[in-house]
Amino acid sequence: MALPQAQQDLLFAAERQPAATAAQTPPQQETPPPSQRIKLYIDGTPLPLTVHPQEEEVYRKAAALLNARIAKFKSAPYKAQSMPDNGPLIMAALLSIVQETALRLEREQQSAYAGALQGLNHRLEALAEQYALPQEPPKR
Fold it and tell me: Are 91 and 113 spatial neighbours (Cβ–Cβ below 8 Å)?
């Protein structure tokens, strides 16, 4: 199940940040966007957070998805199993991490395929140049 792009961006934001090295000059300090306090409820428990306004919708949708998953694991088919009280929360978290891991693996595979295709393209271009037929001047 693919996540919306906004959720993928949030999940992988840390991966896209380049690692700072001693040789790099520090980036200019930008004024961070204003933050706001929001309160999410996860399985009825309030969770106060400070987020940037453009991220609020992603957090609220993620909370709604997590609550839906918790409700699913509290439903009849799963009640019969011996599960601790926090079992539905654990199962919902596990499902989320499994999906995040699947997305990461998919991105890694896509990146590997893109690199392989780029290499093949360079080889094909080199072969095309090597075996190119001389072009005749246009006839008048």
Answer: no
The pLDDT tens digits of the residues spanning 81-101 come to 777 888 889 989 999 999 999
Of 12, 13, 18, 14, the closest CA to residue 102 belongs to: 12
Rounded Cα gap, residues 77 and 54, in angstroms: 38
pTM of the model: 0.56
Q: Long-range contacts made by residues 95-101, C-beta under 8 angstroms, separation at least 24?
A: 95/69, 96/66, 96/69, 99/1, 99/3, 100/11
What are the domain boundaries of the chain? 35-128
Q: How far is CA 98 from the centre of its chain?
A: 12
Say which amino acid occupies 56.
Answer: E
CA distance 94 to 5: 21
